[in-house]
Please model this.
Amino acid sequence: MDIILLSIGLSQSLFAVSMIMTKRPVKIAYIILCALLLVYALIFGLDILQYCHIIPSRRWFLSLSLRMFCGPLFFLYAKYITKDLSKFNPKDYYHALPSILLIIIFFILKLLPENKSISDQFFYDKYEWLRMIYGWIFILLVTYYSISSVSIVLQFKKQIVHNYSYSSFKNSLDWLIIMIVLFVILIILVIVSSALYEQGRIDAKVYIFRHIVELFHVYVISIWGFQQKQLSTIHEPELEDDDETEEFSSGKYIKSGLKSDDAKNYIENLIKFMDDSAIWKDSELSIAKLASQTSISKHRLSEVLNEYLGKSFYVFVNEYRVEHAKKLLKKKEYSNWSIIAIAYECGFNSKTAFNNFFKKYTNQTPSEFKKKW
Model:
């Protein structure tokens, strides 16, 4: 049973990597996710080799160093999936140092003359102090990177209304938070099960349960990671002139060089484009997509909406959708249409989102509005 789970985990990890790398255009976040899945593939592979007695069971340095990669990779994935950056920051390579350092220290100790002839068990016991030190470092790193990763996602979620006209499981990154929490639970399970096994309080069957959790983790990361699209925010640096640079903080723009006359022209062009193109029918319309269509930078577009129209991007677009929905609900030729059909026709991606915004905008539900006509 155990070898079957491990084989499936290894195969699934490698298959997911091959599928994610087919996504175009290739994004930094996709590569980071593949690196995370490759780490899981190595963990499964090592467990298979141990199960087949090809490598010794005392391999804590390698298992620990591999699992140390997971926290930073979750953190970097959260960072790069929420910001569509064109280049990988070289400073982010430093996040791999603890894992690499552990491997280097081990091989230095292993190559010492007094350690060449000793057994793996004796070597394991001899450097138990090192294992304890790195164990605590590992726990601290898992805690730090898990909290940091969730913080990035939560900060992004606060900005969704300024970047997207819709909300879904994918652009809210709820799945990523679930995976990070599951990762923490998995680490706790690994630590507790390993400690109890060494004390002889449980048998090796506990590892089957651990491998089931790991396999589930890999499957969910594979499925949602493949479906996840690159996200973006208005905070990302763009190749603009210095006078086009502004700082967005708590919904306010400061140090902005936008003049009122220019803002008026932006608004007129924007409204004309919205009326003529009906781009608001795009259920996955983002501020980046609208900016590319109107030739207005997303920074300027967001500033115009927030500072001059007093609306978030989410509200601005969905008001167009609701106004169109009101027209359809009034027309006899649409009387046989269901509420969900009208919602999709207007660009909403769910009935719940349609009902919620419609009621907030009109103080009545679509059904109540329809009855009056």
User: Anything to note?
Assistant: The two ends are 63 Å apart (CA to CA).
